[in-house]
Write a structure and sequence with these properties.
The structure is a homodimer of 198-residue chains.
Chain A: H1 14-32, H2 41-48, H3 52-58, H4 62-83, H5 91-108, H6 110-122, H7 128-146, H8 154-175, H9 181-196
Chain B binds a DNA duplex (30 and 30 nucleotides) through residues 13, 15-16, 19, 37, 40-42, 50-54, 56-57, 60-62.
DNA sequence: CGCTAACCTAGAACAAGTTTCAGTATCGAT
DNA sequence: ATCGATACTGAAACTTGTTCTAGGTTAGCG
């Protein structure tokens, strides 16, 4: 097979890369104020200095834009977390500590968190590849915190997925005001117990 | 305090109750075909024989409508599940069995499931009371499956919440085509293990 | 340099959720 | 049965995501 599944997107020119950055920056800025609703495509375009049609060429929908914004923010976060690895005794403790640190970061920008998480869970099949990228990055962060000697077992991977599910869903309950920060912590710690017991 | 938090909504007349039913029925029917996008407010109104403004008086947004539709469907499901209680040895097995039965029911109507779950996770604070009702009903189903001798401990409640988080989030990954049915089963079973080990 | 394809812009147009309004029907209490 | 309040109807208007069009700009290449 000489045909690739992904035809490798042509590399962007410098100006295109700059446009993409401006758009993502604007998106994060607007989301940081009013959350999901405040990210209005016309305003993103105008404030980024591109035409509406161009915005849609770079990000085929508002959901794509916000998921890309999340990828972007996750990279920052991943870098920050790496600088100071968690100090817990057990893998479970380290994962819980890492996720709580991420949670505290999100608490500083609740509106941004709201916009990104809502986009992520509202995404339909057309955004699956991008959502999957976010998911893989989250998995990587958790596995890194576990700091396993060897490759993870299938049971451990299942536990990590449950932790991820809990993380996402607990985040939503907090963002929509249905759960307290304390409860999110308890839920995350509870899920993390699965690690040491598999 | 003689002032109630909820001023008790005036009971609906028969015709109003009938309208409400027609609307919910139409909503479920349209969702059963095309999913979230196919539930269009104008069409729901017309097909239910009410004016658009009336539809919005009963359900202040599309999200409210779909969450109410989910409440409605959950009641049906709860009734169905009650008829044949799960037969597993342990509480964990019974909960997993119950959730997998619910999952199979959803598989028969994937588009309806998609519409309801998307609405649920996309709901913002204005829908919190309704979302909370759905959450409490889900908790009730799980606790019932556990069939505990006494009232649940705080640890058990935390485990139940993690199971609920996993259930919602795993459902989303399946609906958006990012996880197989087998994987959803594994994740649910993994989360359910928390029950017997607390 | 000059060509061509791809890219970008401004703006109109379209789609679906939501709001509004004037007029009509229904309900509950007297 | 009548009256005042509330609810319902039909239709238009408004908002914001998305698509489309016509014309100008850029990038890479001979």
């Amino acid at each position: 097979m000489t045909v690739e599944a992904k035809p490798a997107p042509p590399p962007l020119t410098e100006r295109q890369e700059a446009r993409r950055r401006r758009i993502l920056h604007t998106s994060a800025r607007l989301a940081g104020r009013g959350g999901f609703d405040a990210v209005q495509m016309r305003e993103v375009a105008e404030s980024s200095g591109v035409a509406l049609g161009t915005l849609y060429r770079y990000f085929p929908s508002k959901i794509h834009l916000l998921v890309a914004t999340m990828q972007d923010q996750l990279e920052h976060l991943h870098g920050t977390l790496r600088k100071r690895p968690p100090a817990g005794e057990s893998a479970a403790e380290r994962v819980a500590e890492t996720l709580m640190r991420a949670f505290r970061a999100l608490q500083r920008e609740p509106q941004l968190a709201d916009a990104m998480v809502r986009a992520l869970t509202f995404a339909d099949r057309s955004v699956s590849p991008e959502v999957d990228t976010v998911s893989r990055q989250t998995t990587a962060i958790i596995l890194e915190a576990m700091n396993l000697p060897g490759p993870p077992t299938p049971e451990q991977l299942a536990a990590v997925r449950v932790i991820e599910h809990t993380w996402h869903s607990a985040l939503i309950t907090w963002l929509s005001g249905r759960a307290s920060i304390a409860r999110v912590r308890i839920d995350i710690e509870t899920a993390c117990r699965l690690i040491d017991r598999t």
